[in-house]
Amino acid sequence: MITTVCLNPSIDHMIAVDSLVCGGLNRVRDSRYDAGGKGLNVAVAISALGGEAECVGFMDRENARLFETRLRKSGTAYDFIWRDVPTRTNLKVFDRSCGVVTEFNESGRAVGEEELARMTELIVHRARHADVLVLSGSMPPACPADYYARVLRAVVGESCRCVLDADGAPLAEGIAARPWLIKPNRAELETLTGRSLRGVADVRDAAREIIARGVAVVAVSLGADGAIIADADEAFFAPRLDIDVHSTVGAGDAMVAGLVCGFSAGKGLREAFCMGVAAASAMCMTEGSEPPGRENFETLLQTVQTERI
């Protein structure tokens, strides 16, 4: 079982325009609403790839049906701590002319210490039965920046391996608690190391610096430039696959899903990396927040090229 944590779920409103015009009129060509949040996205993607996943997190009673429908449709288990606050809405504008998504994300509603204590208790309980625990995404306002670090320390001694996919202070604080795997992008890794990372070798060396702090595996998404993964012994680079991009929303979450599915199945670093790259690419071929297609994933997995670096 892979358990994911979604502290700050969202309703993702995806719209498509022919060409985004700032300050002008934009005709919406397509519009859809999806249940979102990184932890939920990772769990649904794991299920789509054939893994066994569950999602725990905070949930608003009023909008729960949208989220429960998505989770049930994918065959993903869930357990929520219920709240009577509006769910945040994230607007994502897909520019068809260049294949770029512009995002406008709300912060969500504040959470209190009592709610966080209940959440920690729930996560620790689920971690006892999980192979991997995934902490991903933003945290609600008023949530301490070290909350992910607190959770990581709370599950020490359990059998699960912990994955952290966050940014800013939650990522920096979380690394101090030594998660097993992190998945920053280039900008986040630059912030962590305090320097510009131009080439593949720069990114690899920066990843190794984080590994020296106690993280076992660092996977770095480089967008159109591909991706890198490293542990203490090996490092690999994979270029971007040549695919028809419909949306990049959720690609990073799908990469996490592919990685943890691979490692949970006993795959080595290179094979798990290939699964992460294939899953992220398959996600880019879908509309809105639909999970990566299994058939596309299997096809793309055969085309992923890796280079030892």
What does this structure look like?
- Helix 1 crosses helix 8, helix 4 runs parallel beside helix 5 and helix 9 packs across helix 10.
- The mean pLDDT is 94.
- It contains ten helices and 14 strands.
- It is of the alpha/beta class.
Search tags:
globular, alpha/beta, 36% helix, 10 helices, ten-stranded mixed beta sheet, 309 residues
State the total count of DSSP E strands: 14
**Helix-and-strand structural type:** alpha/beta
Distance between the termini: 32 Å
Main β-sheet, in a few words? 10 strands, mixed
Q: Helix and strand succession?
A: EEEHEHEEEHEHEHEHHEEEHHHE
Strand order of the largest sheet: 5-4-1-8-9-10-11-12-13-14
Mean residue pLDDT: 94
Tell me the Rg in angstroms.
Answer: 18 Å
Shape: globular
Beta content comes to 25-35%
